[in-house]
Amino acid sequence: MKVLAERLPQISRRRACEALCLSRTGTYRRPTRPRKAVHKAQPRALSAEQRQAVRALFEQEHYLDASARTIYARELSEGRMHGSISTFYRILREDGQTQERRAQRPPQRHTVPRIRATAPNQAWSWDITKLPTWDRGQYLNLYMVLDLFSRFPVGWMISRKENGALAVHMFRQLIEQHGVESAQLVVHQDRGAPMIAESFADLMRSTGITRSYSRPRVSNDNPFSEAQFKTLKYSADYPGRFRDPDHARMWVGSFIKRYRHTPHTGLGLHTPDDVFHGRIEQVHGMRQGALDAYWQQHPERFVHRPPTASLPPAEVTINPEDGLTADELLGQPMQAETAPEAVAIPGVRVN
Predict the structure, then answer these.
(1) Closest CA to 245 of 148, 332, 317, 158
(2) What confidence score (pLDDT) does residue 312 get?
(3) Alpha carbon distance 44, 92 (integer Å)
(4) In the prediction, which pLDDT does 310 show?
(5) Extents of the domains making up the chain
(6) Which in 45, 176, 195, 321 has the greatest CB count within 10 A?
(7) Is the pLDDT of residue 119 over 50?
(8) Is 210 helix (H, G, I), strand (E, B) or coil?
(9) Are 232 and 257 in contact (CB under 8 A)?
(10) How far is it, in rounded angstroms, from Cα 126 to Cα 204?
């Protein structure tokens, strides 16, 4: 008679570990580390003398700037075979010579632009944005110059081209029309071709204006111009596409008129026009008078304190950490690069 052995009761791993006061993680089987492979010498590999001959080939003067593929091809064309391309790279890799053999431009370090404005016409920011037309792939260029302290658009221009000569033409008119003391003005921009053009740099140097540049691929270094372009393109009546430059000038002109007289959240709900033209005290006095009269009529609606009218910030900065004033910034050297010359065209609008 076959006797069946009694089956032991099954206990879960968790209950067993709790009974033995063990960590369940430590009870699992750990994989063993694979043994390090031992590479055996290949019988078909080049000998030490042959490898040394390949190294000497790389050190020849007319091959110093050539790649391994180029050396292989030229030697093969002259009837000499020293080894495969993979063998060439294997030897170069062993000698640590697989890096770029040609002269390379060293990494560029750009200083962080730091600007502080405490009054109008101390710092301007300008940029160029594309306006699409009805013709697919064709765009117009909107040049826009803002006063940092007041967000006031001091000038703008519409053009089919984007070059430094147009920037020179625009800034010459703006400096003359606004009567800016160039020695106290800082012009901030990104590193587009018109901004780094030599003709534009010559104008800035001749007028004594200090140039400030954003770091490459850092849009936050020019936040005021970027924000103003977004406000423009997200307007309710933005047409999306323009027929021609005249259509763009007509719409941008109407937008600028509205923008100048629109309360700005960054200015304590004052308008750029009031801040730029120094009407803050008058407007603030009128607003505070209205708030005081309302508080006298309904004091129960203000629990903590009487209402006060807000004022624009006393200073406006770009990268304010350890920032410098506009006067301090004048003593720092600014970078300027070159770009091809171009022909200027009229059409600057001064506001």
Answers:
(1) 158
(2) 93
(3) 19
(4) 93
(5) 48-94, 115-286+312-350
(6) 195
(7) yes
(8) strand
(9) no
(10) 14
The letter for the amino acid at 156 is W
Q: Is the model's pLDDT at 341 over the cut of 90?
A: no
143 or 33, greater pLDDT: 143
Nearest partner of 339 among 160, 136, 198, 221, judged by Cα? 198
| Contact in structure between 243 and 134 (CB atoms under 8 Å) | yes
**Residues 339, 163: Cα–Cα separation, whole Å:** 8
The whole-number pLDDT of residue 265 equals 92
Residue 63 in contact with residue 71, Cβ under 8 Å?
Answer: yes
Pairing mode of beta strands 153-159, 348-350: antiparallel
* Highest mean predicted confidence (pLDDT) among 57-66, 187-196, 250-259: 250-259
With tokens 């391994």, the residue in question is 68
Token pair of 340 as six digits: 């091809």
DSSP assignment letter at 191: -
Query: How far apart, in whole angstroms, are the C-alpha atoms of residue 157 and residue 256?
Result: 12
Token couple for 286: 């009128």
- Burial class of 116 by CB neighbour count within 10 A (0 to 12, 13 to 18, 19+): buried
Cβ(319)–Cβ(114) below 8 Å: yes
260 touches 271 (CB < 8 A): yes
Question: Around Cβ 343, how many Cβ atoms within 10 Å?
Answer: 9
* DSSP character at residue 313: -
Answer whether residue 338 shows pLDDT above 50. Answer: no
Higher pLDDT, 306 or 38: 306
- 48, 56 Cβ separation under 8 angstroms: no
User: How far from the centroid of its chain's Cα atoms is residue 287's Cα?
Assistant: 39
Query: Quick check: helix, strand or coil at residue 163?
Result: coil
The model scores a pTM over 0.85: no
pLDDT at residue 323, rounded to an integer: 43
Q: What is the mean pLDDT of residues 328-351?
A: 40
How far apart CA 100 and CA 56 sit, in angstroms, is 19
Domain covering 115-286+312-350 in this structure, CATH number: 3.30.420.10
Alpha helices in the chain (DSSP H): 13-20, 48-58, 68-77, 85-94, 164-178, 198-207, 223-233, 245-260, 272-276, 280-297, 326-329
